[in-house]
Model the fold of this input.
Amino acid sequence: MTIKMAVSSGALSLVLAGCGTVTTVLQDDTAATQSLRRQKTYCQSIPRVYSGLAHDFCLLHAAPDPTGFLVPFVLLDMTLSGVLDTVVLPYTIYRQGVDGSLRIYWQSANG
Done:
């Protein structure tokens, strides 16, 4: 394996690991909502239909990132999430009907 191929596969795995669709569709609900809580998003819930795009929009609607490091990756991920969300659309429509939206619960500082 060449160095170029190793770097490309490493970059692809990083992008897929952070992909909103992978986070919301392939992981359980707790893991999907934890990532949004860690980023201190202001979203309270996201629909399962096109959940990857909704996840990315929630990341953009979070407390400001002082480094600005996150924004370009989220914008890049929106394209990938849009494509993958369309591929899994029949499944997410079913899950939306059965389970409803993903709830992002906030705990107050006092309890």
